[in-house]
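Supplementary Methods, section 5.1.

A reviewer requested that the exact input to the structure prediction be made available. We therefore reproduce it here, unchanged from the version used in the analyses.
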Amino acid sequence: MKKTRIVIAVAVLLASCQGNEENHEQQQPAEEHQHPSAVQAGDQADEGEQKKPLSPHTSTMAMVGDAHIHIDYSSPRVRNRIVFGGLVALDEVWVSGAHNATWLETNQALKIAGNELPAGKYAFFTIPGEDQWTVIFNRNREQHGKDEYKQSEDVFRFSVKPETLQEPKEELTYQVNKLSDKEGTISLAWEKKKISFPFEVIQ
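The structure derived from this sequence is encoded token-by-token as follows.
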């Protein structure tokens, strides 16, 4: 009788151990299957971050009377850098954006700082300075960086006094603001600086 009980107990113990091993073998592949998918999701997130442009292409526009004014530019971010006097050199020609030169298009002639800007499409350059900036409208609107810039191709240039912003502007931003059916302002703001100048539609 004792031998029979011992045999039964051993059989039960072996069956229990075999069942645990089977359960362990069934769980292990599931854990291995989950790991690669988690890594893949992380890779996709990283790839998404890498594909996001650091200086996204954007534009702004407005109607002032019959004039349609459109500014096209790439908008870099500050990203904890010193911009004017650091990333952007003072007293040197700047594309006033990133990559290709910023351009402005108008379907009506504009009067700016006593000068006439005929209807058309122009590159928009600036020369940032401590106390004043130089604003430049240039005929060669398709330029990359400032390597192709030639002063001889300027339509005209004029000086403006920069403002100091109380709250820093992370992204470079242009605005065309309508004041009346014939008048408006164009502004550029980035980091701690802003320039703005008025224009009048010539009819």
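The chain has two domains: 1-52, 57-201. These observations are discussed further in the main text.
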